[in-house]
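Suppose a colleague, Dr. K., hands you the sequence of a protein chain of 123 amino acids and asks what its three-dimensional shape might be. Before reaching for any lab equipment, you can write down a predicted structure in C-alpha cell form. Begin with the sequence itself:
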Amino acid sequence: VQLQASGGGLVQAGGSLRLSCAASGRTFSSYAMGWFRQAPGKEREFVAAIDWSGGSTYYADSVKGRFTISRDNAKNTVYLQMNSLKPEDTAVYYCAAAPYVLNFLDGYGMDYWGKGTQVTVSS
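The predicted structure, expressed as C-alpha cells, is then:
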C-alpha cells in the first residue's frame, strides 16, 4: 500500500481545510487508517484514526469536536476535515495505515506511512 497525502496549505485561524490520503493497492479496506502530525521542535502526535469499516473513529483531545476523520473504501481514500483551525494546529500531517485502530492509539505498529502535507494556520 502506498499513501499520498494532500490538501495542506495556509489558512487563517478559524478557517477550515480538508486533507486527503489516497491509497494504492487492493487491501486498503482491510486497514485501519489515521493521521499524525508533527510540529517543529515537537514529537509526532496522534490526531485521529478510523477503523476499516469507518464505523469507529478516535480523536486526540486537542482536536475533538473540530476535526472529523472519514473514509471512502470505494475510492481508497481517507479524509481529515479540519474546522476551527488554531495556530497550534500548524504541523506536517502524515497519514498512515495499520492493522488495527489500537496501533494508532498506542502510537506504534503502523505498516505504511504517507509523505506529509504541511498545514499552516496564521493568527
